Amino acid sequence: MSQPGPIALSCGEPAGIGPEIAVKAWEALRSSCPFFWIGDPRHLPEGTPVKEITAPSAAATACADSFPVLPIAFAGSAARGTADPANAAGVIRSIETAVQLVQTGEAAAVCTAPIHKKALIDGAGFSYPGHTEFLAALAGRSRVVMMLASDRLRVVPATIHIALSEVPKVLTPALLQETIEITAAGLRGQFGIAAPRIAVAGLNPHAGEGGAMGHEELDWINALIRQMQSEGLDVTGPHPADTLFHAAARVRYDAVVCMYHDQALIPIKTLDFDRGVNVTLGLPFIRTSPDHGTAFDIAGTGQANPTSLIEALKLAQRMAASP
């Protein structure tokens, strides 16, 4: 396996746990997974052995004994647990810088720490629903999908942050087909799986049970999957979701495309809560992030668990090294 370049880690919301877990991740990984943090060094935990760098190429050497920082001056302070909208422009610039560096090849991948959307709206008029949509806009992509991945399971929700009552309206044949295609392309291109096997969960209980518990499977989901099979894609389903995630079932696929948020996130968070990683598929570069938020309630207390960020950095490294 070739050694990829360093990973660009955007700082996220500086008043949350992002700075703390970034330093803990560096302490755990050091030179085994070189990365550099993009943000204001003032926001890091006191006593962090900071090494300011001017280019990503310096990160690999620096991280052996120092925390590599590509510095950006922020306008505000970082009182733990209280977001300062004055920092919004700096948070956005950190993300933009990470994307720019991966697009120029100076960084191997982008890893993003959690942001606080309200602070970005209040401080900079941020107009995107979240990280993923902003990254898609920076990359010039109109459609990307969210994958949650761990060593035990990969899941992709076709619809995400909408009410359950809206799912049957938003879930269309075109949306589901595009989600499956982007998932397959991501598994091939970023995970190195030459012939990905994708299972599709049913929308209704028991995948509709022949129309007794819903008609979407009969009306169009079955036909779409058969069509995609005829085009050469290894896709199966729709499968009853209640029998799709146990150990024996998981060996039969590389990823599951689910119909809505909780159908995807409940199983992976149950199986591997601390090690789940958010991966954005459909971007022209690698992007991972920890699968949690800013955790203002414990910011600065030393309690924050860095495991998800560590896994996000390690997965980004493996994806960057994938042939």
UniProtKB/TrEMBL annotation:
<keyword id="KW-0170">Cobalt</keyword>
<feature type="binding site">
    <location>
        <position position="287"/>
    </location>
    <ligand>
        <name>substrate</name>
    </ligand>
</feature>
<dbReference type="InterPro" id="IPR037510">
    <property type="entry name" value="PdxA"/>
</dbReference>
<comment type="similarity">
    <text>Belongs to the PdxA family.</text>
</comment>
<keyword id="KW-0963">Cytoplasm</keyword>
<dbReference type="GO" id="GO:0042823">
    <property type="term" value="P:pyridoxal phosphate biosynthetic process"/>
</dbReference>
<dbReference type="Pfam" id="PF04166">
    <property type="entry name" value="PdxA"/>
</dbReference>
<feature type="binding site">
    <location>
        <position position="261"/>
    </location>
    <ligand>
        <name>a divalent metal cation</name>
    </ligand>
</feature>
<comment type="pathway">
    <text>Cofactor biosynthesis; pyridoxine 5'-phosphate biosynthesis; pyridoxine 5'-phosphate from D-erythrose 4-phosphate: step 4/5.</text>
</comment>
<dbReference type="GO" id="GO:0050570">
    <property type="term" value="F:4-hydroxythreonine-4-phosphate dehydrogenase activity"/>
</dbReference>
<dbReference type="GO" id="GO:0000287">
    <property type="term" value="F:magnesium ion binding"/>
</dbReference>
<feature type="binding site">
    <location>
        <position position="161"/>
    </location>
    <ligand>
        <name>a divalent metal cation</name>
    </ligand>
</feature>
<keyword id="KW-0862">Zinc</keyword>
<keyword id="KW-0520">NAD</keyword>
<dbReference type="GO" id="GO:0005737">
    <property type="term" value="C:cytoplasm"/>
</dbReference>
<comment type="function">
    <text>Catalyzes the NAD(P)-dependent oxidation of 4-(phosphooxy)-L-threonine (HTP) into 2-amino-3-oxo-4-(phosphooxy)butyric acid which spontaneously decarboxylates to form 3-amino-2-oxopropyl phosphate (AHAP).</text>
</comment>
<keyword id="KW-0479">Metal-binding</keyword>
<feature type="binding site">
    <location>
        <position position="131"/>
    </location>
    <ligand>
        <name>substrate</name>
    </ligand>
</feature>
<dbReference type="GO" id="GO:0050897">
    <property type="term" value="F:cobalt ion binding"/>
</dbReference>
<feature type="binding site">
    <location>
        <position position="132"/>
    </location>
    <ligand>
        <name>substrate</name>
    </ligand>
</feature>
<comment type="subunit">
    <text>Homodimer.</text>
</comment>
<feature type="binding site">
    <location>
        <position position="278"/>
    </location>
    <ligand>
        <name>substrate</name>
    </ligand>
</feature>
<dbReference type="GO" id="GO:0051287">
    <property type="term" value="F:NAD binding"/>
</dbReference>
<dbReference type="GO" id="GO:0008615">
    <property type="term" value="P:pyridoxine biosynthetic process"/>
</dbReference>
<keyword id="KW-0664">Pyridoxine biosynthesis</keyword>
<keyword id="KW-0521">NADP</keyword>
<protein>
    <recommendedName>
        <fullName>4-hydroxythreonine-4-phosphate dehydrogenase</fullName>
        <ecNumber>1.1.1.262</ecNumber>
    </recommendedName>
</protein>
<feature type="binding site">
    <location>
        <position position="206"/>
    </location>
    <ligand>
        <name>a divalent metal cation</name>
    </ligand>
</feature>
<dbReference type="InterPro" id="IPR005255">
    <property type="entry name" value="PdxA_fam"/>
</dbReference>
<feature type="binding site">
    <location>
        <position position="269"/>
    </location>
    <ligand>
        <name>substrate</name>
    </ligand>
</feature>
<keyword id="KW-0460">Magnesium</keyword>
<dbReference type="GO" id="GO:0008270">
    <property type="term" value="F:zinc ion binding"/>
</dbReference>
<keyword id="KW-0560">Oxidoreductase</keyword>
